[in-house]
Amino acid sequence: MSDIKTTWDKKALLRQFFPLLIVISLQQLISLSVNLVDNIMLGTYNEASLSGAALVNQLQFMLSQVAVGVGAGVAVLGSQYWGKMRTDPIKKLIGIGLKFSFSAGILFFAVTSLFPREVLMLFSSDEAIIVQGLLYLNIMRWSYLVFSISAVLMYSLQSVQTAFIGTIMSGCTIIISATLNYFLIFGNFGAPELGITGAAIATLISRCVELVVILIYILVFDKKLKMNPSDLLSFDRVYLRDYIKIASPIIITGSLWGVAQAAQTAILGHISATAIAANSIASIVFQIFAVFGMCCASASAVTMGKTIGEGKMHLVRPYARAFQLIFITIGVVSGLLLFLFKEVIVDFYAVTPETRQLTISFITILSITTAFSCYEYPTMSGIIAGGGETKYAAIIDNSFMWLFTIPLSVLSAFVFSWPPEVTFICLKVDQILKCIPNAICCNRFRWIKTLTRDEGEAKIEA
Q1: Domain tally, the chain
Q2: Distance CA 135, CA 140 (A)
Q3: φ, ψ at 127 (rounded to 5°)
Q4: Could you say which of 14, 30, 111, 184 has the lowest number of CB atoms within 10 Å?
Q5: Is the overall model pTM greater than 0.70, yes or no?
Q6: Residue 462 domain-assigned?
Q7: CA angle centred on 80, ends 77 and 84, rounded to 5°
């Protein structure tokens, strides 16, 4: 009988986890493809434009990490309420998340409007690259206000296992962005040749379309939450305390992770312009090939949270063990594919021979760390965080990054003057090392927590 029960449990897990993973991954894959198209077109236009956009995209990445952290906080807490089929708290949590994310968007807009050159000079001292970056940032800063809203709405909807709208959003984005890029970067079909400015305009327009699509879906077509404009504007103080307690470690982790990635770009950027371009190409290629492994975090967090919310505690341990096997398998396959296709992909770029060779070296390093990244990240931010323990990721991520990775990389680049490849290894080796504490923590199962409030409790506190 136990064998039959286990088999049925596995089937239930696969039916719940993989459809969500596929939809989230497709959405993320399309979104990354937009960046890849921008990357290739700007790289074809000229290398200075590619590097200038890469600097500004670090700011976008930092903001996206904040928005993802805010949305993940809603998803972790909201998925447990979804397991209880209580949607009113989820709507209130989404309203809270919107305020946090939009505040971050305003902050990024203000800083990049007031101190654009100073911000970009943190990443590079090459004047040609700074000039291109300023052209790009002058338009892109407006997208921060729009993106901060659409991103948190998209990630928050994952709490109720609605992820396909993200795929639709990203599909609209890639069509609009690729078309406008082709027109405005190169001046095709009678359009003005705007270069990097054209790429920024294309991205801003596509971000606006994303926001329109997600708002129409939430307010008109969604049948799970049935939200109205007042829900988006609401601010519930009772659930605010719960949200801050659960989400603040995730938001802090995402924010500091974004800062750390920007610091890594700054380290490589002060080595040479070639290192900036190579890192820009290698990073986006890695993200595309590792997309399923990285998206396992969101899918497993929602699945785990919903399972706990439903009160099915007997399924948490076998689900966690099965997830780990899935993560390892996806990671090994992703790393192998990345290694096999690295030269084919790099040849799409019209870059110098030096940049091409350095990019291939960077991707080779990433093909090794991919298998570990696809295990450590979803284990920490998916299983453990989704199970209710959100502080663990903040401690582990920031300890490794700020006490080990960044100091070691600075020594490599500026004290010992080691080759860029060695510095790049120093920047990525923490992905391997974090697997050890994450595996230990995950399989001790001390992270299982119920986070929801009873309806009566919430009414009394209100």
Answers
A1: 1
A2: 9
A3: -65, -40
A4: 14
A5: yes
A6: no
A7: 140
